[in-house]
Design a protein that fits this description.
Dehydroquinate synthase-like, alpha domain; 357 residues; 2 domains; globular; alpha/beta; two-stranded antiparallel sheet; binds nicotinamide-adenine-dinucleotide; binds zinc ion
């Protein structure tokens, strides 16, 4: 097991990464000072796979868990699902000394995290991420939210967990496509802040795709340490934290214009990073060879890199403009001046379309 701390003043907490940690969940949470009544919030898929093991581990650590399983999928990040979660928490008589364990992907982490932030004005939250995306990204940083019918993540809070437990052996059960989309976020950390990591990933593609546990442990650790570095310096995204949006400007615009469902988030981000690398060659000093390495690595991991046919639409332009900073006429892009270093540029919509054409 690898452990480190995220330093956020009074909200500082430990991160544990390793194989077989689900079986030690109760012990690890007890060591973080938690005990007693708790809710294990999960989704139906994850419940089928891991709830019994998590419950047993919690009981062994002295906890008394009630399990709440929501429907799998983004629709559970809703006010309606949240209300059902509150109902169950109240029925189960959780009190202010109780804790909430979020066992699942980013959907469960965001929903259970917001429930923990708000129930009784805040109860202890333990993130137990089970997707690669959640293990390398969403579990750390404290962003919690549900969606509103008018937009994603519109209702939420920054609420730090008391503990993160990332058991990389759980990733074996992930469907291939969901595993690969998480790799896009892994590659993102290399692109924005760790060029040697890109070289290591290039060498280890085979082991990564084979989900070798020792490799996954090292990769998840490296990504979480990078995210912790960023969040420690800019918890509320005043400036630095925005580098984590590399690839997300075009990525979100694709998700919104070609429609949710066509691409998984990580797939849209892979295309978005490739597009941002192209803009970086034209405007920020990234070399064509570096951009090609990024594209080739994403491709070798089975991720799409080409803009979809017909991407130049009114909807795309609209979606891109929604990312626009209120102050300026353009869209704020995170670009690369080299692999491992970022810079930002305000770009006009026409300029973006011209450079990506
Ligand atoms: N809070 C943040 O900082 C942050 C960052 C990035 C993304 N997000 C959010 O994360 C969400 C996406 O998260 P996600 O990609 O993890 O999706 P998800 O939570 O929907 O999980 C994907 C699917 O995999 C299943 N699953 C989960 N773990 C599994 C396992 N070990 N084996 C087999 N199946 C498993 C789930 O049931 C689900 O069907 C989005 O709502 C996004 O907004 C939040
Ligand atoms: Zn993302």
């Amino acid at each position: 097991m690898i452990s480190f701390r995220v330093e956020l003043g009074p909200a500082s907490h430990a991160v544990n990464i390793g194989e077989g940690l689900l079986e030690r969940l109760g012990e690890l949470a007890a060591a973080a000072g938690l005990s007693g009544r708790c809710a294990l919030i999960t989704d139906a898929n994850v419940a089928r796979l891991f709830a019994a093991r998590a419950q047993a581990a919690l009981r062994a650590g002295g906890f008394d868990p009630v399990t709440i399983a929501v429907e799998p999928g983004e629709t559970s990040k809703s006010l309606a699902a949240l209300e059902r979660v509150y109902d169950r928490l109240i029925e189960a008589e959780l009190d202010r000394s109780s804790s909430i364990f979020a066992l699942g992907g980013g959907v469960v982490g965001d929903l259970a995290g917001f429930a923990a932030a708000t129930f009784l004005r805040g109860v202890a939250l333990i993130q137990v991420p089970t997707t690669l995306l959640a293990q390398v990204d969403s579990a750390l940083g404290g962003k919690t939210a549900v969606n509103h019918r008018l937009g994603k993540n519109l209702i939420g809070a920054i609420y730090q967990p008391r503990l993160i437990v990332a058991d990389v052996s759980l990733l074996k059960a992930l469907p291939e496509r969901e595993f690969r989309e998480g790799i896009a976020e892994v590659i993102k950390y290399g692109a924005i802040m760790d060029a040697p990591f890109i070289a290591e990933l290039e060498r280890e593609v085979e082991g990564l795709l084979a989900r070798r546990p020792d490799l996954l442990e090292a990769i998840v650790e490296r990504c979480l340490r990078h995210k912790a570095y960023v969040v420690e310096r800019d918890e509320r995204e005043a400036e630095l934290r925005s580098i984590l949006n590399f690839g997300h400007t075009v990525g979100h615009a694709l998700e919104n214009s070609v429609g949710y469902g066509r691409y998984l988030h990580g797939e849209a981000i892979a295309i978005g990073m490739t597009a941002a690398a192209r803009l970086s060659c034209a405007l920020a000093g990234l070399t064509a060879q570096e951009a090609q390495r990024l594209r080739a690595l994403l491709g070798a991991c089975g991720l799409p890199t080409a803009m979809p046919p017909g991407w130049r639409s009114e909807e795309f332009r609209h979606a891109l403009a929604r990312d626009k900073k209120r102050s300026g006429a353009g869209v704020r892009f995170v670009l690369l001046s080299a692999l491992g270093s970022t810079t930002t540029r305000l770009l006009g919509l026409e300029e973006v379309e011209r450079l990506l054409a």
